[in-house]
Write a structure and sequence with these properties.
Elements lengths: L2 H4 L7 H29 L3 H21 L2 H24 L10 H13 L3 E7 L4 H11 L2 H9 L2 E7 L5 H9 L7 E5 L5 E4 L5 H9 L2
Parallel strand pairs: 1-2
Antiparallel strand pairs: 1-3, 3-4
Helix pairs in contact: 3-4
Length: about 210
């Protein structure tokens, strides 16, 4: 629609290859992040599977570049068998290991604390929730907020929804929420206040005024 804009586009050249490598860094970073989430869900053994997968892919690329077609086919079959063996080993044995949920006990402790007129801040979070991690890094896990909570006798309790948990899901639905983060504050009288999903330090400091 605006032909002039076509003249502003850079011409094809070596810069495209360099840009491709730069953008690949973000893809690799995303893959590592997703692998770290899987490790939280299924255990640190996931890293072995991930490294093996990356190694298989790397060897396959080298084979394509340096060998003839027959060699590539042989290497591909060998690597495929190796990868399938790792897949079977991991998902048949390691993934069967389940971590018992403690959400029921945690929710019971929240109820017990509120009944004893203890102020509670509930943080419903998940390892795959980027907003949760940002809030934790820049607000909840900072030393000044920790000191504030301790000084004002506010107990911080986390509910981890990284793996699906029916009890936590029910707790979320209680507040008409379908996802995380969710921040619920109980004052000493048991009165509930919901905090914003994009949390700031001032939101925490304001809890003192609402007591």
């Amino acid at each position: 629609y605006v032909p002039y804009l076509k003249n502003l586009l850079p011409k094809p050249g070596a810069w495209m290859i360099k840009l491709k490598h730069v953008l690949a860094i973000f893809l690799y970073g995303s893959a590592l992040w997703l692998l770290s989430i899987l490790a939280v869900q299924l255990g640190n053994s996931v890293w072995i599977f991930g490294i093996l997968l990356a190694l298989v892919w790397f060897i396959l690329l080298i084979s394509i570049q340096r060998t003839k077609l027959l060699g590539v086919i042989k290497n591909s079959i060998f690597l495929l068998i190796l990868l399938l063996s790792a897949y079977v080993f991991y998902f048949v044995f390691i993934s069967k290991i389940e971590t018992p949920s403690t959400s029921i006990e945690t929710l019971s402790s929240i109820k017990s604390l509120t009944q004893n007129k203890t102020k509670v801040l509930v943080d419903v979070t998940a390892a795959w929730c980027i907003t949760c991690k940002v809030n934790e890094t820049f607000v909840l896990d900072t030393q000044d907020i920790k000191s504030f909570l301790q000084k004002n006798n506010i107990t911080l309790i986390k509910l981890d929804w990284t793996n699906y948990d029916k009890t936590i899901t029910t707790y979320l639905q209680k507040f008409n929420r379908q996802g995380v983060p969710l921040y619920v504050y109980y004052d000493k009288n048991g009165k509930i206040k919901l905090l914003p999903q994009l949390l700031s330090k001032q939101d925490i400091y304001n809890l003192k005024e609402s007591q």
